[in-house]
Amino acid sequence: MxxxxxxxxGCFFAPLLAxxxxxxxxxxxxxxxxxxxxxxxxxxxTFQAPAKFTxxxxxxxxxxxxxxxxxxxxxxxxxxxxxxxQKDVTDQLRKGANVIAIRGHNIAxxxxxxxxxxxxxxxxxxxxxxxDTSWLSSDQEESGWNQTVFxxxxxxxxxxxGKHGDKPWGEVxxxxxxxxxxxxxxxxxxxxxxxxxxxxxxxxxxCMTVDPKGRLIISPQADDQPLLRVSLKRSGEVENIEKIPxxxxxxxxxxxxxxxxxxxxxxxxxxxxxSIPQEIRGRRRARLPRCQAWTR
Length: 296
Known about the structure:
Elements: E1 4-10, E2 24-27, E3 39-49, E4 55-63, E5 65-70, E6 73-76, E7 85-88, E8 96-106, E9 113-122, E10 125-130, E11 136-138, E12 156-157, E13 159-163, E14 190-197, E15 205-210, E16 216-220, E17 227-232, E18 238-244, E19 249-257, E20 260-267, E21 270-277, E22 284-288, E23 291-295
Parallel strand pairs: 1-14
Antiparallel strand pairs: 2-13, 3-8, 3-11, 4-7, 4-9, 5-6, 5-8, 9-10, 11-12, 15-16, 16-17, 17-18, 19-20, 20-21, 22-23
């Protein structure tokens, strides 16, 4: 009997935190004074990025809300500790010296905190930057506080409010994993394999098609996430995932036909339907009706 094999590519990412990289909830040391309603505090951490990093992924949550900066640029704005934010921040990371900074805002109650972990990948190795008492904090906003070059000698060590998983917050940075292949029911003669669980920045995948080279064209759900192209090895393993530089997002329909990728999704002016030629591999632009194409 011939066995047909389906490649299952999952839609979620779950960071596995070893004890050494387990982030802690932190807040400013109020020296015994109760945390106040509408209290705002500032946090920063300088660190060195590997010279040949390939990816940087941020997971962050806040009680009650926060604005996160990487080298002065806003990269995340979590609100509510039960709704953590995941972001691919590779483009904002620099080789060498960097700073990650957080503006934390307690809206109500006397419980507040921020928690984050930055995972920097360089080949098979990872460097982690978790929130802990090595971070510095202040109760005053100062010019340039979220920049690498800043005199933080007057700032103080952040106060530890508990490690990830502790009450009252729990494991807020634990995200759902892709559905295990063995949990799926398929017709006789078919087999399902889990090849990849989407990582931070790749989004929840809602639509997929195959191009003539056997590569998977995938659309994440969010409007700030690009179409993706997944290349597979002969063994069926994922070899490479690359972003497609097309102004179309959140595709509800994808089809490869007539040397073009047909897309029904969100464009610069709203929902669009049209085709993107096969030359989408490159980056030079050419206008199409209600869409754009990238040509060599």
